[in-house]
Every structure is written in structure tokens, then in C-alpha cells.
Design a protein that fits this description.
The protein is of the alpha/beta class. The protein contains 23 helices and ten strands. It folds into three domains: 123 residues, no CATH class; 248 residues, 3-Layer(aba) Sandwich (Rossmann fold), CATH 3.40.50; 55 residues, no CATH class. The chain binds iron/sulfur cluster (SF4).
């Protein structure tokens, strides 16, 4: 059993029966679910909007190489620069190189989930560069020394009382501080950081090929300040974030906001078109976009799985997933969690270490039904399971058991050969452990349906 799988089972067991965690997460997720149901009412035909978005992303994925080159060339025209990074190691090395060249010892960050994938904060700290998360949720988990819990709402697992207690411990503010008081406190603290930082780092919600612009969506305005104050702005984004044209935003912005937070449109939607130009009053002197592959082209190679690259990171599939709602985000031990995380993590990391996530699903299909870009998530989980068999990841014992099972099940007389007690013992012996202690194995009755039918027919 892989070490990740063992950890996942331990964590899931603990979290699923932690009633406080369950209460907080169910409360917070239900607020999102209600908001999303209202948010999607803005579409005259939600299905048409999803279909169009899915088609656009499909086109992008099929021609990703061309769109990426177009994006790079247009960004260059506007004075920006692209750095290509094949994997996590390349990306971290390049980012550190850029920061050292610019003598940066503090970076203000916002909306940069991709940097979590690179474990960049740890690497920056190890190299004497202070990373400061400026998005409130990210800041809370950074202060707590934790990883983000959810791709859109990183501190979703904390109640307002948890956050007040945390800030009381760390900064000595009153333990009964309200969310408004905490927000004001953080705002004051971060203002200094924006002024001191040598670089700002953000992610990208969309990279727009026909203009070379970077679109960033947020509700707090901290990403805006991370771009506008420091002299250097680094964007860290996965290569799949491309959309063909500026005109596609009228579809993607409302789809993202309605499915992510239930808003008609997010509060701040910024388009970055290179560094500050002459006569412009704010913006960085230099803008660099680090484009990360890190396993995405492995996904691209797999025909059914490549659809997962359409993801716009709205987080909706996490919020509806019965598994996520029970075990929470940290159990996945990965940046991308929930159904989309279970699909893509085996390709972004070591396949054998993360494939167990594809089996942690009821395959109910709610993720697929909710996805604004129509990714067939539950089917992709099945494809992952198939892929694990193809790669020989199946336990040899399981293979033998399934062969025996098939042999017996294909003929009635073989099924009836054994007595019910023997069958029940065999079930308990072969499947008892996988079934778990909390579920009761199905009991095979003494008489089969066929026997009962003949007797009573
Ligand atoms: S897979 Fe779909 S629902 Fe899930 S985060 Fe991505 S876009 Fe949203």
C-alpha cells in the first residue's frame, strides 16, 4: 500500500468522525451551495452557457501548443516575458533566479494556487525570501501553518471562532474579535507588506491568447495591490489556463463567479496587459509569466483525461462531493482536492502514490452535473481506475480473486455449489477488510431467488 494511501485512510477515518470539523464544513459548504443555486439563475440557458464554455476549452486543449505561442508573442509585444517551466524543480529554480536577480527579500502573493503545487512558500523561506499571503483565507492558513483546505476558499474548515482564537494566540488580539475586526487588523498588517515587498506574485484565472493579457478574478482587491505596488510582478500559471480571446470572458467570468461563490460577477476582474507603460501611474516595471507544465502534458497525452485540463478552478465539484464533505480537503494531501483533484493528481504527482484517490468516490456523478465546463469527472475517475489496472498497479491477490469471482458467477450451478455459510465466510475472508469495519457485508441467504421462485411459483 502506498504511503499516501495509508495517510489518506488514516486522515479520512479521523476527519469523517470529527463532529466539530463536520459541523463547520457542512455549515460553510451549504452556504456556498445555496449561493450557487441562486447565482446560476442569471443565465437564460445555463446548459447552453456550459456547452459553449466546454466547446471553447475543448478547442483550446486540442490546439494548446498554438494558443500558448500566440499568448507568448502577444505578451512580448506588450513588454512582458514568458518563462517556461517543465516541472516543479524548473519552476522553483527560475522563480528563485528572477527574485535573486532583482534583490527581492519579500514577496506579496495573492490568488496563486499554482504556487502551492510548487510548494513555493517553503522554498522561498528556505532561500531567505519572506512569502506573505495577502488573500484573507490564504493569510489565515499561512498564520496557522497549514495548507489551503479548498482551491477557492482556503480557510473553509475554520469557523469565525477558530480564526479569532488563532489570531488571539498569534497576535494577541481579543479572543472574541469579530470577523470585521479581524479583517481590519489584517488589512493594517498587510498594507505595510505591500509597501515593503520587492515583488508581487499572483496566479491567473485566464491567459488570453489573442491579446497576451492575464485575467485575475478576486473579491478582496489584494491581488490588484500585489500587482500595482511592487516593481516586479510574477504570474505563476498552469499552461491550461488559456482561453482564445478577450471576447470569451463574457462567458467565463460569470460562469466562474456563479459556480464558485454564487455571485453574478466577482468584485474585481483585472486584465493585465504587460508592465506599466509610459504615462501610466501604477503597475510594475517588469512583468514575467511563469508557465508551468508539471504533468499537464502527461494528462494531455491521455485522450479521455485531457478534458480535465478544461477546469476553471471554480471549486463547485468539491462543494457537492459527498466524499469531500465528509473527509475535507486536507485528507487528500494535495493542492487540488475533491473530484477534480482525484482525477488529475495521479498525473501531476507520482501516479502510484495518488491513484487511490480515484477509488475514493461513490461515482454519484454530482461533480459532473455541476461542472460549468462539463468535465465528465466521475467517468474520468473510472478511466483512472482502468489506467491503474493497465499500469499493473493492481494487487496480484485482487486479480486472482476477481478471476475466481468471475468464474463462479458466470454459471448458476457453480454459484449454487457452495452452501450459504461457506459463501458468507468467503465473502468475509476476501472482502471483509476492504469493506471496512463500519459497514455490514451483504448476507447471502440459504435459498437463492431462483429456488424461492421455483418453490413458490
Ligand atoms: S472540475 Fe469543473 S466544477 Fe470542478 S473545479 Fe474544475 S471547473 Fe469547477
Amino acid at each position: 500500500m502506498s504511503t499516501q494511501r495509508v495517510r489518506f485512510l488514516e486522515q479520512s477515518e479521523r476527519k469523517a468522525f470529527d463532529t466539530k470539523h463536520r459541523k463547520t464544513i457542512n455549515h460553510n459548504i451549504s452556504r456556498y451551495e445555496d449561493a450557487v443555486s441562486n447565482g446560476v439563475l442569471q443565465f437564460a440557458s445555463l446548459e447552453n452557457a456550459k456547452e459553449r464554455a466546454s466547446n471553447i476549452k475543448h478547442k483550446v486543449i486540442e490546439h494548446l501548443d498554438e494558443y500558448l505561442i500566440e499568448f507568448e508573442s502577444n505578451l512580448k509585444h506588450m513588454g512582458g516575458r514568458v518563462v517556461w517551466a517543465l516541472n516543479k524543480k524548473d519552476a522553483v529554480r527560475e522563480i528563485l533566479k528572477i527574485l535573486k536577480e532583482h534583490d527581492v527579500n519579500m514577496v506579496v502573493k495573492s490568488k496563486s494556487v499554482t504556487t502551492e503545487e510548487l510548494e513555493l512558500n517553503e522554498m522561498l523561506s528556505r532561500n531567505g525570501i519572506e512569502p506573505v499571503e495577502t488573500d484573507l483565507g490564504e493569510y489565515i492558513v499561512q498564520v496557522a501553518g497549514e495548507k489551503p483546505y479548498h482551491i477557492l476558499t482556503p480557510a473553509m474548515h475554520k469557523s469565525k471562532e477558530d480564526v479569532a482564537a488563532l489570531f488571539h494566540d498569534k497576535f494577541g488580539i481579543p479572543a472574541d474579535s469579530t470577523p470585521e475586526q479581524i479583517t481590519l487588523f489584517v488589512r493594517e498588517k498587510l498594507r505595510e507588506k505591500f509597501l515593503q515587498a520587492g515583488a508581487g506574485m499572483t496566479g491567473a484565472n485566464f491567459l488570453i491568447a489573442d491579446t497576451g493579457a492575464v485575467a485575475v478574478t478576486e473579491n478582496e482587491g489584494n491581488a490588484l495591490m500585489s500587482m500595482a505596488f511592487p516593481k516586479l510582478h510574477i504570474v505563476v500559471a498552469g499552461i491550461e489556463k488559456i482561453i482564445p480571446s478577450l471576447s470569451d470572458l463574457h462567458l467565463f467570468w460569470p460562469l466562474l463567479s456563479s459556480h464558485g461563490s454564487g455571485q453574478n460577477i466577482t468584485v474585481y476582474n483585472t486584465l493585465l496587459t504587460g508592465p506599466r507603460k509610459e504615462k501610466e501611474t501604477d503597475g510594475p516595471d517588469e512583468m514575467i509569466v511563469v508557465l508551468i507544465d508539471n504533468g499537464r502534458t502527461d494528462l494531455l497525452k491521455q485522450t479521455p483525461h485531457r478534458r480535465a485540463l478544461s477546469c476553471i478552478h471554480c471549486g463547485a465539484c468539491l462543494n457537492v462531493c459527498p466524499v469531500y464533505k465528509n473527509i475535507g480537503g486536507h485528507a487528500y494531501d494535495a493542492t487540488y482536492t475533491g473530484p477534480i483533484g482525484s482525477v488529475i493528481n495521479p498525473y501531476l504527482h507520482d501516479f502510484s502514490q495518488y491513484i487511490h484517490l480515484s477509488f475514493a468516490s461513490s461515482l454519484c456523478g454530482r461533480c459532473t452535473a455541476t461542472c460549468p465546463v462539463k468535465i465528465n469527472l466521475h467517468e474520468l475517475l473510472l478511466f483512472n481506475r482502468y489506467e491503474s489496472v493497465r499500469r499493473g498497479q493492481l494487487h496480484p491477490g485482487e486479480k486472482v480473486i476477481m478471476k475466481g469471482w468471475k468464474y463462479i458467477m458466470l454459471k448458476r450451478y457453480r454459484m449454487d455449489f457452495f452452501r450459504a455459510t461457506t459463501k458468507n465466510r468467503a465473502l468475509a475472508y476476501f472482502f471483509g477488510q476492504a469493506w471496512g469495519q463500519r459497514r455490514i457485508l451483504p448476507i447471502i441467504r440459504k435459498k437463492s431467488f431462483r429456488q424461492l421462485w421455483t418453490e413458490n411459483g
